[in-house]
Amino acid sequence: MNQNTSSAVMQQRSEPDDSLDDFPTQPWATRALCFHVLAGYRLRDKTCWEPACNRGHMVDPLAESFGQVWASDVHNYGRGAQGDFLIPGMIPWDDGRGVDWIVTNPPFRLAEQFIARALDVATVGVAMIVRTSFLEGVGRYENLFSKNPPSIVAQFSERVPMVKGRLTATGSTATSYCWLVWLNGVTTTKLVWIPPCRKKLERADDYAAYREVTA
Fold first, then answer.
1. Which spans does this entry mark as compositional bias, Polar residues (predicted)?
2. pTM for this entry
3. Nearest alpha carbon to residue 133 among 153, 161, 158
């Protein structure tokens, strides 16, 4: 039986309530945020917290642009501190002083909570990579976007393959992703497109620990 890869089917990403929502972000997609969306924001002078760091696939490219990057996750993947981002004070550096930026791929079922918490903690900005369909929904509009609209919606012109449980250089997807960015003090929303950049920003060693076996 052939897989149904229609957009209507592939946009659905339903995870159990206790799921870790393990969908690693390809490093080039994080570099695209830094190089094409946040290029003018002096990131080298800023601190950043990645609170759903998984195995560090987003942490490493963030460290290429930010002055200091902290990493944590509710699950121990062997990278970063372990603790629940949604519970204040569980992470060593969550001491009330805040950090400049929070950047992450939030668990889908907790994305709104992650955004709300991040907006309370970050002193400069918040960036979340989400499915483009996250922008839809009356409830999400009423609870989030009508009150705290993103400053920038940065839509990928290329697809960003995210595969459950592993980082892959060869995967494909029918799901569209974008970066949502909130900047402190900015209340209007700007729509931008991230140009095709995977070939330029992708590096062979991004996948060094996840070599796929081919016939």
1. 1-13
2. 0.86
3. 153
Please count the other Cβ atoms lying within 10 Å of the Cβ belonging to residue 129.
Answer: 23
How many other CB atoms sit within 10 Å of the CB of residue 107? 19
CB atoms within 10 A of CB 200: 11
Question: What tokens appear for 33 in the block?
Answer: 């945020």
Instruction: For residues 117 and 131, give the distance between their C-alpha atoms in angstroms, rounded to a whole number.
Output: 19
Q: Which single residue is written with the structure tokens 């590096």?
A: 203
**If residue 157 lies in a helix (H) or strand (E), which one and from where to where?**
none
Q: Determine the structural domain holding residue 158 and report its residue range.
A: 22-201
DSSP-derived 3-state class of residue 182: strand
- 35, part of any domain: yes
Q: 180 in helix, strand or coil?
A: strand
- CATH number of the CATH domain containing 97: 3.40.50.150
Domain assignment present for 215: no
Beta bridge partners of 194: 156
Give pLDDT tens digits for 12-55: 434 444 445 678 899 999 999 999 999 999 999 999 999 999 88
Residues 6+ apart with CB under 8 A from 95: 89
The DSSP 8-state label assigned to residue 24 in this structure reads P
Nearest-CA neighbor of 48 among 113, 112, 103? Answer: 103
